[in-house]
Structure formats: C-alpha cells, structure tokens
Write a structure and sequence with these properties.
alpha+beta, 2 domains, three-stranded antiparallel sheet, 13 strands
Length: 468
C-alpha cells in the first residue's frame, strides 16, 4: 500500500476547513436518533458475530449482555456502528477507539511505573469520523445514568459536561505544538493531588483505594489467583467455563499441536516488538496455557492466557493472546490498511494511548481447524483498574465523564486534524446539546434492542447462560 501524503496546511487553513465543514454539516444536525426503515435486526447482527466465535462461549456473551441495558450496550458495538454510519459526519476523520464507552477507559501503569488514565480497549480501532467515538461515549453515559436511576435533568448535566470537556480540551490541543500534544497525558496521582482540595474526604479515600487495588493487579497477583502446582510445576488452575487449561479442551494430539502453535506465537511475536523488549521477553520460558473468557462484547473470540517464568518460580509473567477480528467499523468506515488485524489493534493503540504495554505485539497462527487467525498479545494485568460505574453518584459520574472526554480528545488530537475539529466545534455548546439529545434518543433505542435480545432468549431463538 502506498502511504498517503500528509498535508501540511497552515493553522488558518485548517481552521477554515473546520468552519466549512460546519456549514456543510451543521452541529445541530447531530441531535436525535431515528432508526432507519432498513435498520438491521439487532439480534441478527449479534448472531452474525457469533458465527466466527467459539460456539459454547456465545451463550455466556448473551448472558452477560442481559444483565442490564448498560452491559447490553457494552456488547453492542456492531449494532451501534451500523446506526452511526447513517448519522451526520463532518468529514473530519481521526483514529477511533471504535468502542469508546465509559467502561473502556481506566488506569494502568506506564513503563516508567506511573499511574496514568487513558483509553484501554482497542479491539475495534480504525480511522473514521471522530463524532462516532464521541457519540458512543456520551450515549454510554445516558445508558449508565439510567441504570443508576438518575433523573433526566441530572443525566443532562452529565452529558453536557462530557461534550463540553471534549470541546474545550480539543480547543486547547488545537493551540498546542505537535510535540506538546504528543506528550500530553493524565498522571492520576498528580491529578488527584490537584483535585484533593475540591473533593470530599470520602471520595478521595475511594479513589486512593481504587488506585491501591490497581497497583496490585500484575502478573504476581495473577499468579497467586490463577496458578496452582501440578507435579512440582506451576499450572493455570481450572475454573470452567471461564478458565479452561489446554489439556481439558483438546485430546493429546490436538493439544500438542495447539501448544506448539501458541508457543511459536509467543516466540515469534517478539519480532513485532522493540529489540530491548524482545530481549526481556526471551528471558522467560513458556510453562502453561489456558483459554479465558474476557469482557462482554469479546466473549466467544479466542482468548488465551499464557504463563511464563523468568529467573525462578517466583518470577511469573502472564500474557494474554487475544484474537483480533475485523473491526465492527470496517464495513462502514472502510477496511484497515493492515492485513493483520492484530497489527491493526496494536497500531491504533500506539497512536491513541498515552503509553502502552511493553509486551504489546501481534502475530498470526493457524489453528487445528486449518483457519489462520490474527492475535494481539499483551500482559494480562499491569496495574489495570476501572471505575465502579455501578456505584457512581451524579457528581462522580460527571467528573469521570470529563476525564474520559479529555482523554478521547487527546487521542483524536494525536491522529486527526485537531485544529479543524476544534474549529468545527466552535466556542458554544451547540454540538454538546445536539449530542446530548442524540445520547438520550439512542439510550431509548438501546433499551428496545436489549428487550429484543431478552425476547429472543425467551422465545428460544438463542440461548443465554447467566451468572458467569
């Protein structure tokens, strides 16, 4: 593929581009949502996704989506992508998360061992209209606010706070140098120190507790939780159907083939890493493998965890090998420039995220069924932590919404034309009010789709396994 020539327009020209886009696609046009008469059956879209997934795990996905309209929303990225494709677009693209709901943001440890806040899920990343990410984020707040029982007026304040922070953050990034934008990040401890005087003591204590818990979530903690000893050698403990060691999944011959393939994946994916990180990886030896169910929308895709050991039995490394399928955005925004979907995920993550896992990489392997599948690899846990949305009060959700909005704006500013986007957004809440209207209308649609899935289970059309 021939690389696209980068334009180098003057700031004034870029601002003019944004204002021209505003004239073509008014900011107010983003308000509301009316489903198309040809809108696909949402359950049919989920069934379509199920055809490429592990059959026995698909009912778990449906069960997790049925917990609440919010968990349904988390698993409905394809459904919303199809809907967003029919909404107005300014024509200004950026690298998208593709699934920018508020549970896909969180804290994690940087390579320098600082706690930072950023987007943390990139399975669906792809270039596309920046509005799609913003709308998915703001709509997730409407859905989550309803789950929390917040009244309409309270939700409205949260939605506007999110959209306003995205707009003001983008305006700030538009005035910054390229390098300043690239280095911009949210250091969680520094942010907490800054906000401490404004927060109630209880809220500060809760945040500190969340951060302390996140710092314990690493390979050592995972080793204590997931590992056991068999014949003097550590093994990943069985907890079916959520964690199933390789020996319980396949007969001996097939098992040896899969182990060899995935062990090869672990050895060769290092070629996609920087040389110093590859040197570190080579100091670990492969020990054991298990299939692990992860997330909500990802359930059913092939996800493995590999246990490796370093200097001794107390130096574990857990790597997650997660299947990367084509982005749900691809049929609407265009296919990825990368032939390997794992590389697509990694490239998008590196472009959008403040800092990335030192073991992040990709590879392609051939399974026992002869199918070639793409994977991306990273540490299973590396100081990862997420907010407990189910416990948020309105003030806490508004503050969290602003953090997510700033983070998303920074990610878009790194890859898109931040000056043009800022110019399009302008200085008033026109876009914010419009996208807040969209969010509430889409939350209505999400509830109808949630009920459609519940009805499909009740009728026996599909099976759901709950409680997992």
């Amino acid at each position: 593929m021939v690389a696209k020539q980068q334009e180098h327009l003057a700031p004034a020209e870029r601002a003019t581009r944004g204002k021209a886009a505003r004239a073509e696609v008014p900011r107010s046009s983003h308000a509301g949502f009316t489903p198309s008469e040809r809108r696909p059956d949402p359950v049919a879209l989920l069934e379509e996704q199920a055809t490429s997934r592990v059959p026995e795990l698909v009912p778990i996905r449906y069960g997790r989506m049925l917990v609440s309209p919010f968990t349904f929303y988390r698993g409905a990225a394809l459904i919303m992508a199809a809907d967003l494709a029919g909404t107005p677009s300014s024509g200004l693209d950026a690298q998208l998360c593709g699934d920018a709901h508020l549970s896909n943001f969180g804290v994690f440890g940087s390579p320098e061992r600082h706690m930072i806040f950023s987007v943390n899920d990139f399975d669906e990343t792809l270039p596309g209209p920046w509005e799609w990410d913003v709308k998915r984020l703001v709509a997730s707040l409407a859905v989550a606010g309803r789950d929390r029982g917040f009244i309409t007026a309270v939700r409205r304040k949260i939605l506007l706070a999110c959209a306003r922070e995205y707009r003001t953050a983008m305006a700030k990034f538009a005035g910054m140098s390229n390098m300043a934008v690239w280095y911009a990040h949210l250091d969680v401890e520094a942010l907490l120190d800054q906000l401490r005087p404004q927060l109630e003591a209880k809220r500060v204590k809760n945040v500190e507790s969340t951060l302390a818990k996140a710092r314990t979530r690493d390979s050592v903690q995972a080793f204590a939780k997931f590992a056991t000893e068999v014949d003097g050698e550590p093994r990943i403990a069985s907890d079916p159907p959520l964690i199933v060691p390789i020996e319980e999944l396949l007969p001996d011959a097939d098992r040896r083939e899969v182990i060899n393939e995935l062990a090869m994946l672990l050895r060769t994916y290092g070629k996609t890493m920087e040389s110093d990180k590859r040197h570190l990886l080579e100091q670990y030896r492969f020990v054991h493998l298990a299939r692990k169910v992860v997330g909500v929308g990802s359930v059913g895709t092939r996800a493995w965890i590999g246990l490796l050991l370093g200097r001794d039995g107390q130096d574990p490394l857990f790597l997650q090998m997660k299947e990367a399928q084509e982005s749900v955005l691809a049929r609407f925004a265009g296919r990825s420039q990368y032939a390997n979907q794992g590389q697509r995920v990694v490239a998008g993550q590196l472009l959008m995220q403040t800092a990335s896992d030192i073991f992040l990489g990709w590879q392609r392997v051939t399974g026992i069924d002869g199918e070639r599948r793409d994977f991306y690899i990273r540490q299973l846990r590396d100081w990862k932590g997420s907010a407990e949305i189910e416990r948020m009060d309105p003030k806490g959700m508004a503050m969290y919404a602003e953090l997510c909005a700033w983070t998303l704006a920074r990610a878009h500013a790194r890859s898109g034309d931040r000056i043009a986007i800022a110019s399009y957004l302008g200085k008033r809440d026109v876009f914010g009010n419009a996208v807040a209207d969209f969010a509430e209308a889409y939350a209505d649609q999400n509830e109808r789709d949630y009920q459609a899935l519940a009805d499909a289970v009740s009728s026996g059309r599909i099976k759901a396994q709950t409680g997992l």
